[in-house]
Write a structure and sequence with these properties.
The chain is mostly helical. The protein has nine helices and three strands; from the N terminus they run H-E-H-H-E-E-H-H-H-H-H-H.
């Protein structure tokens, strides 16, 4: 399928921003982007304007295009939706999940435990996504699935919930088991309740990590690293 230069640049930059390649507040220099994509500056500007409309980029006077920051308010709003929608998707999936689906979920859960034992945080995160996707994909509501996917697209823009966060992982493993057992019982309301509880705690944890990261960076800027001087 043919794509214009603007569309190509837009898609690449959008994917890179959502995958966390750029830090919050990082400047995107249009002239450098034009060199990178072997184009004039016009399609780069047009692509960045599209990203601004999605609030992934913000323009600041005398500064230029910056990768937008996810504030605590942004994260709260995202999780207010995620909690409700992912709970709903779980309830709707109950009757559609097959024996094969349950076998796949069981394997994901077992592999997650092993990944945690191995301290393979990247693998655990991948399995976490697989667990949730396996459930939501059975809800038979494509609009709901797409909306959840859009909300999940911001996941890599904030700190990892799992990297070195053993206490959170242990809680997630127990919560996943509760969700799995409720699904096995075909109890839609209980499954939804467990998922809501699970996502609510995850949202609180992301806010905690985001605030910690902010204050760590502030500390590094304000307090110089120790030197040999006394």
């Amino acid at each position: 399928m043919y794509r214009t230069k603007k569309e190509m640049i837009y898609q690449i930059l959008r994917e890179e921003i959502l995958n966390g390649k750029y830090k919050f507040g990082e400047k995107l220099v249009i002239s450098r982007m034009a060199i990178r994509f072997e184009s004039s500056e016009i399609p780069v500007r047009e692509a960045i304007n599209l990203l601004e409309s999605e609030k992934l980029i913000e323009f600041k006077p005398h500064v230029g295009a910056l990768v937008s920051t996810l504030s605590a308010k942004d994260i709260r709003e995202i999780f207010e939706l995620r909690v409700e929608l992912e709970g709903l998707a779980t309830r709707l999936a109950v009757e559609a999940l097959t024996e094969e689906n349950f076998s796949e979920l069981r394997k994901i859960l077992d592999d997650s435990v092993q990944a945690f034992k191995d301290k393979d945080y990247i693998r655990f995160e991948e399995l976490n996504v697989a667990f949730h996707n396996k459930i939501y994909s059975a809800c038979n509501n494509q609009l709901l699935i797409r909306t959840i996917d859009d909300l999940w697209s911001n996941t890599k823009r904030y700190p990892s919930l799992f990297k070195g966060n053993d206490e959170h992982i242990q809680a997630s493993i127990h919560e996943h088991e509760d969700i799995y057992r409720a699904l096995l019982r075909k109890d839609g309301m209980l499954s939804e309740s467990y998922m809501i509880k699970h996502k609510t705690r995850a949202g609180r944890e992301i806010l905690r990590l985001t605030q910690q990261e902010f204050y760590d960076k502030l500390h590094d800027r304000l307090i110089p690293k120790s030197s040999n001087s006394i």
